[in-house]
Design brief:
InterPro entries: DUF2065 (IPR019201). The chain is mostly helical. About 90% of the residues lie in helices and about 0% in strands. It has three helices and no strands. The two termini are about 20 Å apart.
Length: about 60
């Protein structure tokens, strides 16, 4: 694994940790809403997040 990929994964963990630390109740509410969504809707949100992330990564590099 390249050091850039490892660094990026570490940053993901930091950001996820910050969300849990700063707003645990908001995170819980979001997860309750996500549990009520259909798998298709969750997949669409996931695909959109991947697309946005790839475009942003391309713009940064």
């Amino acid at each position: 694994m390249s050091s850039e990929l490892a660094g990026a994964l570490c940053l993901v963990l930091v950001i996820e940790g910050l969300v849990l630390f700063a707003a645990p109740r908001g995170w819980q509410a979001t997860m309750r809403e996500a549990a009520n969504m259909s798998p298709r809707t969750l997949r669409l949100f996931g695909a959109a997040a991947i697309g946005i992330g790839l475009v942003a990564l391309r713009l940064v590099h």
